Structure formats: C-alpha cells, structure tokens
Here is the input.
Amino acid sequence: MATLGREKVQKNNVLVIQLNESGILINKKLLKIDKMKDLKFSQNTTNVDVVNKNFLYNFFNSVRQKINEPVKKAIQRNKN
Here is the structure.
C-alpha cells in the first residue's frame, strides 16, 4: 500500500479504453494489479495537430489578457 500525500492508495486498477478515429468508444477493459504484469505496452505515439495547438494557445492567451487587463490599468493609474 502506497501513500500519496495524506491518503493511502487502496486499489490500483487500470481502465483500458479503445477509441476509433472519431474518438468514439469501441472497447473498455478494467484490469486489476495482478493481471497487469502480463501486459505489453504499445510504442505508438500520438501526433499533436499544430492547428489545434495554435487555436488553444490563442484562446487561452486571449483569456489571460482579458483577466490581466484590469490589473495593468490599475498599475498604470497608480504610477500617474
């Protein structure tokens, strides 16, 4: 039994899900810790689409600017 912070981990189960190209669930399996010793993990990697990354970056950047704008205005008023 391992401890993470203040809580003790009682179970160490893993949910294995399989998705199709559209992201729809095809198959799901719940594995217990004693069956995980026989697993072979895939070496495949997922490629990140640059267009989606740029969209998310731009979206969060604009949200951050809108949040920080009142703070910047207050700092400029205090300087004057």
User: Anything to note?
Assistant: The longest strand covers residues 25-31. The chain has one domain: 3-37+48-79. The chain is about 40% helix and 20% strand.
